[in-house]
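Inputs:
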Amino acid sequence: MERRLNPGAFDLMVILALMRLGEGAYGVPISREIEQTSGRSVAQATLYATLARLEKKGLIGSQLGEPTAERGGRAKRYFHVTAKGLREVRDTQRVFTSLWNGLPKLKGDLA
Amino acid sequence: MTRTVPPVVATWLLKRVARGNEALIGDLLEEYGRRGSAVWYWRQVLTTVLVVRSKEAVLTVAVLALYVIGGRFSVPGANADRLTLMASRAAGTPFGLFSVLTGGQLSGVTIFALGIMPYVSAALIVQVIALAWRFLTGNARPHRDVRVADFHDKPPVSREITWCVAILLCITQAIGLALFLERSSAINPGVAIVAYPGLMFRITTVLTLTAGTAGLMLISDQISRRGIGNGMFLVFLAGIVAGLSGTLLPLITGQADPIAVVSYTALHVTIAGVVSHGYRRAFVPVEHA
């Protein structure tokens, strides 16, 4: 049966950032990780909208941490990748790798 | 050294918009403590407004457009031009005041002449009766947080009952309006608003006005049910904005009584407050550890 690939480009970046960060992945380090690797600024609201969508799909999970003073007494929400999320990432990697291998070598600006 | 107190207005806006997402607010406060850039902070807050409220904004504009388009269609059999003329001459009378209060929709006898108000009234009536019933039968419960899912699975009061009461109110108000138009025509036969009064006109008026309001109720329910926002409030707000020209013009040109200005403001602020607060709790996402 035909299977639809779920994660889009930003979704995938978020999941990979979560995997790189491991424990302690909450909003601030996630956006920092994506900004440092991609060189693009990330709006926190966009990140949370993506995280909420991924959580709804069951690709990631979350739990609340302890409140801290520097956050105005607000708790951090820690995120982690679920088993389903890991499968999805592996599938996507496999598809991208297959497509990538079929391309001629990248030379300069031309593919 | 970085600034630790972020712009107060931006934080106020952020807390209003991202209510329920404490983690997001905390993240922005924490990151501001590190960066200390007011520009960055404002950009994040404004993006949050766009992301969180985009659907509501689009829907409000869509409902607004619906009001404007619907405002061009009058009830069949009624001469809207003559009624508008009568409303302009009726400054200071109850009809003139009520015409201003409906943002000109009433004086044009448009299909949205009754607006969403019958639904608002019905919701309040049913809620009050339900509360009184629980109190009398000793089933009064302490207030608790309600999840969106809880609200849709087990609404506090049956939507069907609210709908029935609202439709009854629509029919009653529409009959009243039809009779009023007929009598006005009988008193001033020279400028008759209704050319052919009678049972057919009354039935047509009731069907048209009830269908118009029922359409607004349906849109309101869909907005609420999909968790986009408080549908009743959005539709009510769109009605006010759409009727601003019909309300402000008579006030500016002096055709409306100053009492209308005070009444209009007080009434709409009160209703908006009640509608906004009455359903807010049901749509606040609750964070669970």
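The mean pLDDT of chain A is 86. Flag for discussion at group meeting.
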